[in-house]
Model the fold of this input.
Amino acid sequence: MKKALLFIIFYQLVSVSAYSQSNQQKAQNLVTKYISSKYNLKSNQNLKFNPIEISRSSYADTKQYKNYVYKIDSLKLEARKIDARFAKLKTTAEINQSKKDSKNLSNQLVATSDVMIDFMTTYKGQQIGWLLKMVSGNKIISKKRFYLNMDLTEVSSVK
Done:
């Protein structure tokens, strides 16, 4: 029973590594073809790549993050309005109320920023494709990061 279990575990590890290797080969072949067609290079023997990585969506693309940014911007705008009218205030009551409003806005800004930071640190993006980094290559090629689609059929962007 133990031997059968060990065999199953070994088989799964080998199949996972074969899957990763095939994705690595597909990605390298795709990038090599892309470089050949884009830069009209005859030989790509000197191209070396890092292992393929998963490209994930960014928190900056989410609606929740954009809402936090909007709220922070609107709080900052309100704070600027309070600061601008502070010089025009005449009575002590108006000045004290303005200080309270400013402190309240400051507290809201800190709280919103804390929630936004928590969201950013806990965000787990969904896989949107693959990333292949070039370690070294031809001097003509200045681009080193190749973003590939999920199916490894096209280069979606190069940075």
